[in-house]
Design brief:
mainly alpha, 147 residues, single chain, 83% helix, globular, de novo design (two linked rop proteins)
Length: 147
């Protein structure tokens, strides 16, 4: 199969299809129970494929920024979830939130390469992630203040 066809096939992967491909070691980790973590990990895989399309057009820094900001969301979410104090959890979730907002901006800027349809779907996914992150941050802040 041609390289571009492989990329397009992966880009079209739905969340349910993607979820079936996730390693059991990841699904069996307690952090998997967080909806935001699952969506962020999914976004990271989408960003990988999207970045390959951007690289084909020789926009290397755009691809790098898009992938790094998208991947940072799940990384900081899992690191924050692993912290003991609510204050520390909230801080890492805030970093993940910042990365989500950054990724959303990069996807908007990428619409000229990825297409409006793909970029819109990614922006919608990231907006959902942002809403989930805001709730988690609020919950952790309240839990910290109630001590």
């Amino acid at each position: 199969m041609h390289f571009v066809a492989l990329i397009k096939k992966k880009v079209a992967m739905t969340y349910k299809e993607w979820e079936k491909s996730v390693y059991p070691e990841i699904k069996n980790d307690i952090v998997w129970k967080l909806e935001v973590y699952r969506y962020a990990l999914y976004l990271s895989d989408l960003a990988w494929s999207d970045s390959l399309q951007i690289i084909e057009r020789k926009h290397f820094s755009l691809a790098d920024q898009l992938y790094r900001s998208s991947s940072s969301i799940s990384a900081n979410t899992s690191e924050g979830y692993s912290r003991i104090s609510n204050k520390e959890k909230a801080r890492f979730y805030e970093i993940a939130l910042g990365s989500a907002r950054e990724a959303r901006g990069w996807y908007f800027k990428s619409r000229h390469i990825l297409s409006d349809e793909v970029s819109t779907k990614r922006v919608q996914l990231i907006t959902h992630i942002i809403r989930l992150m805001l709730k988690m941050i609020t919950d952790r802040r309240k839990a910290h203040q109630s001590k």
